Structures are given as structure tokens and as C-alpha cells.
Amino acid sequence: MNTQPPTDATAWNALAALAEGWRGDALKRALATDATRADRLAAQGPGLHYTFARQRLDAAVRDQLVQLALARDLPAWRSALLAGEAINVTEGRPAWHTALRAGASAPPEVQSAQSQMRRLAERLRDGAWLGATGQPIERIVHLGTGGSDLGPRLVVDALAESASARLRVDFAANVDPLDLDRRLRDADPARTLFVVVSKTFTTQETMANAQAAKTWLAQGLRADASLAPHFVAVSANVQAARAFGAGEVLPMWDWVGGRYSIWSAVGFSAMAAIGADAFGEFLAGARDMDLHFADAPLERNVPVLLALLGIWNVNFLGAATQAVLPYATPLRLLPAYLQQLEMESNGKRVDRAGRSVAYATAPVVWGAEGTVGQHSFHQLLHQGTQIVPVDFIVFDEAPGDPARRRILAAHAEAQAEALARGQDDPALPAYRRTPGSRPSSTLRFERLDARNLGRLIALYEHKVFTQGVIWNINSFDQWGVELGKQLAKALLERARDRS
Amino acid sequence: MNTQPPTDATAWNALAALAEGWRGDALKRALATDATRADRLAAQGPGLHYTFARQRLDAAVRDQLVQLALARDLPAWRSALLAGEAINVTEGRPAWHTALRAGASAPPEVQSAQSQMRRLAERLRDGAWLGATGQPIERIVHLGTGGSDLGPRLVVDALAESASARLRVDFAANVDPLDLDRRLRDADPARTLFVVVSKTFTTQETMANAQAAKTWLAQGLRADASLAPHFVAVSANVQAARAFGAGEVLPMWDWVGGRYSIWSAVGFSAMAAIGADAFGEFLAGARDMDLHFADAPLERNVPVLLALLGIWNVNFLGAATQAVLPYATPLRLLPAYLQQLEMESNGKRVDRAGRSVAYATAPVVWGAEGTVGQHSFHQLLHQGTQIVPVDFIVFDEAPGDPARRRILAAHAEAQAEALARGQDDPALPAYRRTPGSRPSSTLRFERLDARNLGRLIALYEHKVFTQGVIWNINSFDQWGVELGKQLAKALLERARDRS
Fold it and tell me: How many separate domains does chain B show?
């Protein structure tokens, strides 16, 4: 498979030449003169319609981007990903998160873990799981950080309308003691379960919080109470999890990266909240997207198009950031989730052959839920000096008052239009004019539910993978964070020696 | 006062020349060879120590940046700001938020509003404020968006440890009906007060939510109950607020911009949560920073230095974004607050003379609380292809378990060190090396309390103002968001006509 720099590809140079035609107000002119753009620059995925007619490109650019993907051997890389080959070469592992949602085709250990998760989740949801003093568990406090936190946090919040009323699920991720303290302020130790998630069971923040949880339980329960029924561990290190005193241990595997682990037992707290059936729908949605990614022709393949549009904006039109604007309160945590997924996966500067790259890789991914951001940073999107490409994410159906929902939908459409078309009425003073030609895409889902949430997350996973292939980097390691950990350890040891 | 482009200044060209010496690994070399950097590239502000020794500059650059500020007439602009002159020229108004924290020197209408706020807040905190059915109010739901939301939301969360246990304060800002619905799920209408904040009392999202609140109350209370004791309005439009049915109306003034309004009655919900004394400390902290900004020599003036470092990174070293990383769970909303403050204020492309600017203005401001971000996007900070300047914000004292607090502090220091020094051991494979020379500043506060929170927010306000002066833009309007509002209105009208 191709591990040469992408800049060697003929398509790369062709794209660089095409980009010259798309600076300035070319998009505005194209929108004004070509009524067929909206039909031609769009694609259908499972449960969703994707339009990129408001991006700075035409079909010729799209075709050249597809040529670039072919020159980078994307189909072969994709097959290797989906087959569970060890494409994470710096750690000698597969990145086989797609196996977690393969249903009846999943590996036996995955199916067995899913059965165990379902059994435990149902016990919690039925009120049959009792704490040390015989009270039913009513609150889960999930302790994890990064990839062991952001996924279940997002799912629980996104699907809160279908969550169990009996079980409350909270999260603490920071080693700042106030993060956990605030979650425990009104909790009853007799009715609280901690789900401790750490692949190695040595993550410093998570283990410090788990120890604090143990102290809090011991102080709140009878002196002779066993703490085992108050701890579920999710870890690849079963021995350490048992030694810690967890009553139940759910497995993790080294072939699943943290930021791709929501589909595994890392999602246990989310399954407990929304139920095993809804969690099954969530996995099925991801599977839908895997099949689409595997089978759809590249020029109609939504994750591939999303990836190629990102490459176009970053490498050819100079975008430094990518905004994600879900018009849905339930997806307010999506920007933080994608921040990890994209920036930790592709925030790299050394390619697969060990060369420093001579081109930009991952942009800064940021955003907030609409309409909230409109009253905050949208000023810069419309009138700032840098171009920020936007992904609008909208849902045709979602719960709640239809009148306010119509207002919400109108604003999403109006923002995309305002960014693209601008306002250059010469009768207005200069400070009131907006330049337009600012690029955005819109992902329109039929409805906000577990299945489409699975599709949405898997869509961005495959986007990130595709960009890693184009950029010739390994999207599945994160060596850049090791130095900070080492220095913190040294500082703490020095402080301990001094005292 | 100077309204010429900053690029005309001699200092601008001098800085452009100096910047050539600070690309690549110059910072790493400077740190290795100059032991006095940490002392010389630092300043003291009220309650805080600011160090910028890990930025890509030396004293010569700092001095030239100060020359640029002088060439831009910063002292004269600063006097105009603090004197309440109409420096917001496109709207013909002052931007006189500093008057709101001037204590005994504040205008009479400000002092009178503060007395009214204190009286109402104490009634709520004492349980003396009764709803329509005679029950005491126990929950406040704050309805506002943008500048009428982010400030009180930040203060209530940041100072939660000193908040009233009797009163719960929630926020809903989005027109997505689920935002408010989720806040009301477990609320009791008889004990719930809505604080509706809108300068014009016509903000679409806020008024839609206020109407929904009215319906919810009417359904939950006796048919003949008056809703007046369940609504406080904060608005400059007293007539509309009364017509809506608010029992109490607190004033706003057109000389206070939304994103600078936390010091006004917009902060009422925060005062109710933390008490009038703590809110007074918060105002006093901002006043401390106003006096420091007014009086400290530019080369030791913390908001001015923060602003100049931003200019250096954006305009001379090419940074497109600025990360804000508070190592404190209570400040997890600070990045969102500063996103509005900086991007809405300075995300502009037309200067005070109506010219399109030929230089970059506000960067994208983003971030998350440490250590949470370390397990997410820090990979890109250390090994990505773009340079992201970081503001670390740390506190020597804060509540909670000292052991975890030490870990937190060690990580903040270790991240700054790792970014600056890197790891270039040739024995390591290329993918494990980090380049270093990545810039950061550290703001170290003595403790996390109301006074220092006031200082911190006012610090960034004056930073933003100073940058607006350098960039020759009006930081106090937001005309860029008007087009989107108009288009949304047109879309809604068209849909109404069709149905």
C-alpha cells in the first residue's frame, strides 16, 4: 500500500492548480449562476443526506479529490482496516473497532462481552442490583478520562429523553478533586455504583478518583460492608481490576483504541442508561455506516467525501480549523467528542515512513450547538479575517415543541445561506457588509435517535481514517502525549522527595 | 486618536523583521541558554503572577510590542474607554462596563440597580420569596442567550462551592425545546422562578423559551394564580417586560454590551446563587484589574502584555487559534466564555475608517479544562503541524483533596514544559519525538475565589480592548450576525405563508 507523501501524487498538483480558482468570491458566483449545484454536490448515506454545494468547489474538484484518494490506495487501506490487519504499526496492532459492531459476525469474545454487559445493565435497570447494605443502585458515577469518558458521556446526554428514570448516570474525568466531589455532593453511598474505566487500570487521574470513591464509600457505609458490589471495572488488566476490589470486570482489548472504544464495554454506563435494545440500535447504526463506507463508490461515499472536503479546505484553501455545529441540544457534547477523535488521531507531524511531513495535517476542531453559538462566535465566522469551514448537523425529527423546533431549523439553514451568500449591498456601510463565500456542509439526518447517533459517530471515524490515509500518518497512536506524562511524574517524585 | 492601519507603524515593520528570528526551535535554544528568562519575561497583576518566558520572544520583542501599543495611542484609547466616551462609533455609544464595578464612584442608576438586585437576591436566599401558591422559591431557571447567558452560567459554576444550598440555579439558552424541557423535568412550578434576560426583550430564542415557561407554569399552578412572582426580567425595555408579566424588572443600559454585562443585573442569577457579598467581591476584583490596567506601565501591565503576546502570535508568527486551558474544574466554562468575548469582539474585517483590513484579527479561541484535554486534543498541541499558543490558568489554592490537587498542578507545569522543551532524543523513533518550541503563558492566581474570578474576566476584557486598538477595529459592535437573523426571519415567514 502507498506510503509515499501525498504531495507526490499527480492529483495533488492538479488540486493545487484548481484551488487558485476558488479563492475570493468564487463560491458566491457559482451559487448565483449554477442552479444545479445543490443536486450534483450531494450524497445519500444511511439515514442521512449530505450536501456540500456550499463548499468552495465544483464537480471537477470533487473528481480530482477522488483521484487523490485512489492514488493514496484508499480502497486497499480500507480493506485492511475492516479486516483487522495490524495497521497501527507503531504499536503493532489492528484498529478493529468495526468488529465491535459486526453483530453476529463479531469475534466470539466480543459477543460474550456484550452478553455480560446486557446482563449487568438489565440488573441495574430492573433495580435488582443491590449495594452492600441491600439498597438498590440508583446512581452510576462513571470514572474515566479521554476515550474512556467522552463517548459514554456523549451518548448518555444525546439520548437522555429515552434514558431510564430510575438510574442517574454522572461522569467525573478530571483529577481536580472538585470534579468528583461535585458529583457526590447529593449522592447516597448505599445506592451508588462506580464504573471505573481504564484500559491499563493505571491511568493516573482515573485511579486517583477511584481511590477517592473507595474512601467515600467506606466512610458512608457500615464498617464491615464489602465495596465489591459498588464497583464495576472496564479494563484489559483484569488482575489489577480484581485486586482493586471491583465486583464485576468487563473486558477491553488492545486492538481497540480509547477514542474508538464507545462500541465496547467502555459504553457500559451508556447501555445502563438507555437500555440494551437502544445500545444495540446504536451499534447497528455504526454497522450501517461501516457497510456504506465499505461499499459505496468513492464519489458518493459520505465519510470519504467528508474527509476529502476537509483535505481540500486544509491543504489547498488554507483552513486551520473546522467548526462542528450541531443544531440540537442533545449533541452539545459532539464538538468535544470530535475534538478528541480528529485531533488525537491526526494531529501528527511524522509520516508512516518516519519523515517529517511537509503539509498540514489535522485542523483544530471546535464548535458548539446551534443556536447558542450564533450569539457568541458566529460574528467571526461571518466577518472575521480567517475562513472557518463549518459542518452543520441537523435533524428533521426530534422530540419537543414543534414551534421552537421550526425556529431552530430555520436558523441552521439561514446561517449556512448567510455564510455562503454574504451581503454586499453598497448602500450599507462597510461594517455591515459580509463577504460571503464562506464554506459549509450540511448533514441532515431523518431523526435524532440511537441508530442515527451510531451512524454519525462512525461517519466521523471513517472520515478521520480516510484523512490519515491521505496524509500518510498512523491515526491510531498518540505518542505525543507521553512526554508530558513523564515530566509530571518526575515533578511529583521530586516534590515527594523534598517533603 | 490613531485610526491609521497598524501596518503603517514603524514598530510593526520592526516586529516583522524580529519574527524571523523566532521561528523553528529558537524558543528551545533560548530556554536552554538563558537562565534569567523566567524572571525578566513576567509581570505581577492583582492576585496573580503572569509568566510569558515560554513564548517565542525576548525582551527586545516585548519592548517593540510596547512601542506598537504606544504608536497606536493605546493610553488615549484606554482613557476614552474608562471615561465612558462613545468609542463604540458604529452604534454611537460608550462601552462603559467599567462603570458597573466602580463601587462608590459608579453612576447613581448603577448603584440603585445594585441595591435592588441585593434586596431581591436576599429575599430569594432567605426563602422569603414566595410563589403564587405560597411556596418558597427553590429553583431559578435563567433564560437568556449569548451575553445574557454565558457570564452568569460561568460564575455560578465557578463558585458552586460557595453557593446557597437552598437555591438551585439552572440555565437554558437554546431555542431547541429540549434545552428548557430538560431543565424543567424535575422542577416544581410552585417553587420555580424564571429570570428572563434580554436587553431588547425581543431576542427570539429567549422570548420563545419565556413563553414556554409561562405555559408550563400555567399548567402546573392553580388556574387563577398570578404568574408575576415567578418572573424576574432583566431588560432595557421595561414596558415590554411589564407587559410580559414579570413581577420584578431589573435594568440594563445601552452603554453595556451583552458580552460585557455580567457585572450588571444580567448577573442577578449569579448573585442569588453566591450571595451579594461574594458578588460584591467579584465586582471588586474587576475593579482591581481596571485600576491595574489604567495605572501599570505598559511593559508590566498584564492585560496589555496578554494582548501584545496575542498580536505577536497572530500577526507575526502566524497562529490561527489561541487555546485557553484552565487547570480547574470550576473554570470549565471559561473557554466558551472567552470564545464569545474575543471572537465576537474582534472577529472583524473592516477597520474604524471603513477599510478592509490587510492583516489577521481575532483568532479562534478554544480549549478545555486540564487535565481533561490532555487525554484528548493535546496530541495535536505537541505533535501537530500547526502552532497553537496556550494560556495555562492555574490556582495555588482551591478546595478539595490536596493529593489530587498536587497531581493537577504537576500536570499543568509539565504540559507547559513539554510544549516548550520537546523531546528530540535521536535514540527515539521519529514518531516519539516532539519538536518543542511551542509557546505558552501561565497565569497563576493565589486562589480560586470570587475576587480572582472578577480579576480574571476583567483581565481578558482589557486584553480584547487593547487588541481592538492595535487592530484598529471597533470591539463593541457585532453587525456580522444581522444577516443570519434576517434570513431566518424570512424563512419562517415564508413557511408560515405556505401553511
Answer: 2
Instruction: Tell me the average pLDDT of chain B.
Output: 97
The C-alpha cell at A259 is 477514542
Q: Is residue B1 predicted with pLDDT exceeding 90? A: no
Residue of A nearest to B151 (CA): A376
Tell whether A289 is covered by a domain: no
| B419 found inside a domain | yes
In this structure, the answer to whether residues A72 and A113 fall within a common structural domain is no
Comparing CB atoms, the residue among A344, A379, A431 nearest residue B90 is A431
Same domain, B110 and B86: no
Residues A89 and A101 in one domain: no
> Is residue A375 among the annotated active site residues?
yes
B410 Cβ under 8 Å from any chain A Cβ: yes
Q: What is the pLDDT of residue A131?
A: 97
Q: What is the mean pLDDT of residues B248-266?
A: 97
Cβ–Cβ of B482/A388 closer than 8 Å?
Answer: no
**Which CATH number fits the domain that encloses residue A181?**
3.40.50.10490
Q: Are residues B326 and B425 in the same domain?
A: yes
Which of B204, B370, B400 has the CB atom closest to A177's CB atom?
Answer: B400
Give residue A247's pLDDT.
97
**Closest in A401, A405, A432 to B482, CB measured:** A432
* Residue B150 counted as domain residue: yes
Q: Is the pLDDT of residue A326 over 90?
A: yes
Residue B318 distance to chain A (closest CA, Å): 11
Task: Assess whether B113 and B171 both reside in one domain.
Answer: yes
**Alpha carbon distance B313, B317 (integer Å):** 5
Q: Verify whether the Cβ–Cβ distance B320 to A382 is below 8 Å.
A: no
pLDDT at A222: 85
What is the pLDDT at residue A498?
85
* Contact A156/B at CB under 8 A: no
Query: Domain range holding A236?
Result: 97-279
Percent with pLDDT over 70 in chain B: 100
Contact A384 B327 (CB under 8 A): no
Has A344 been annotated as catalytic? Answer: yes
- Residues sharing a CB contact under 8 Å with residue B170, sequence separation 6 or more, in sequence order: B139, B140, B141, B142, B183
Q: By the CB < 8 Å criterion, does A182 face chain B?
A: yes
pLDDT in the model for residue B3 = 84
Quick: pLDDT tens for A37-87. 999 999 999 999 999 999 999 999 999 999 999 999 999 999 999 999 999
Nearest residue of chain A to residue B348 (CA atoms): A384
pLDDT more than 70, % of chain A: 100
Q: How confident is the model at residue A1 (pLDDT cuts 50, 70, 90)?
A: confident
Inter-chain touch A488–B431, beta carbons under 8 Å: no
For chain A, what is the mean pLDDT?
97
Confidence of residue A3 (pLDDT cuts 50, 70, 90): confident
Can you give the pLDDT at residue A275? Answer: 98
Residue B272's pLDDT is 98
User: How large is the average pLDDT for residues B339-351?
Assistant: 98
For residue A499, pLDDT over 80 is answered with no
